[in-house]
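Section handout, structural biology tutorial.
Before the tutorial, make sure you can parse a SMILES string by hand: atoms, branches in parentheses, ring closures as digits. In the record below the ligand is zinc ion, and the chain has 348 residues. In the tutorial you will relate the predicted structure tokens back to the input. Do not try to memorize them.
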Amino acid sequence: MKALVYHGPGRKTWEEVPDAAIQEPTDVVVRVDTTTICGTDLHILQGDVAAVTDGRILGHEAVGTVTEVGDAVTGFRAGDRVLVPAITKCGRCAYCQRGMPSHCQTVGGIGWIFGHLIDGTQAETVRVPYADTSLYGVPDSVTNEQAIFLADSLPTGYEVGVLAGQVRPGDTVAVVGAGAVGLSAILTTGLWGASKVIAIDTNKFRLEKALEFGATDAVEVGPGTVAEVIALTDGLGVDVSIEAVGYPETLLTAASLVRPGGSIANIGVHGTPVELPMQDMWIQNVRLTMGLVDTVSIPTLLKMVASGRIPAEKMGTHSFTFDQMDEAYDVFKHAAANSALKVVITPS
Ligand SMILES: NC(=O)c1ccc[n+]([C@@H]2O[C@H](COP(=O)([O-])OP(=O)(O)OC[C@H]3O[C@@H](n4cnc5c(N)ncnc54)[C@H](O)[C@@H]3O)[C@@H](O)[C@H]2O)c1
Ligand SMILES: [Zn+2]
Ligand SMILES: [Zn+2]
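Predicted structure of the complex:
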């Protein structure tokens, strides 16, 4: 089969490799019908993720068809259309039982293993460990182009942003960063009845998208950003401030938008320490949450996509075939210049 193989910082090739095969009785093999690229894949290619070594097949998101089933698998059969999520879970360890498979001890101490600790989904076929507890069947009414965004970005925006921030009916919400993850938070904030959703970004195209995705207001980053957002909330500050970029300055912006008693939900992956003004924050009774996505909201999100409440397909702006993998990476890497959000990659 062919797959996208990592060969050290800055080097990847779409090349011939051995077919994915069952190794454990709890595995299945999935033929990849749709995959996509995540910002984390770009980080890996910059050499930021030391655990990813030469020879690793990249990718941690897929929708596909089961082709082979291990002897111990009871929930899936060859021919089933499935969603392969970013997080793999045994379902039994202490973290899985607490609903936190992001830290599944059995699969590797961290639930994100595809394209990280084991071969990933940017390939013609992929081996899926712990299939019974990790895979999700995709309902007929949900297309591959919708389901693919439930593998990572939609659950991330929803779980680490909206749910962790505890958005409640009538709340005002700010989302700093309207990339795929920020937009996923915007798209799912409505499920909890937010009265106002304010998108904040440096990029005009992303702000236009945010309004399409359900934001009520869009604020372009500038010297007056904080004052502008505070003015939109009658001078109070927002109930929930979601950070979806991953820079010190954007977390500081998110923190300065929240009202006393509100929540700051950090989704961004930070590569450097962030200095927070705790001397001002402590007396504000604010909460600050953060974390790696668990993807446990996938069943809920699948139902909302199936019923038309979440138009997940809006996330895909560009389509490519497997043999255009390099082009797909180029467009995604320069997403802003290409008016791109997420790319959809299919065999042909
Ligand atoms: N916690 C998790 O489990 C998890 C999972 C996936 C992704 N992430 C992280 O979430 C973050 C967002 O991911 P993404 O895929 O949407 O990234 P992205 O690059 O597509 O989007 C980031 C957005 O932030 C905007 N931006 C850049 N600088 C800004 C600034 N100074 N102020 C306001 N906006 C600014 C960009 O224009 C862009 O629209 C990343 O840090 C990513 O690593 C976290
Ligand atoms: Zn990802
Ligand atoms: Zn586990």
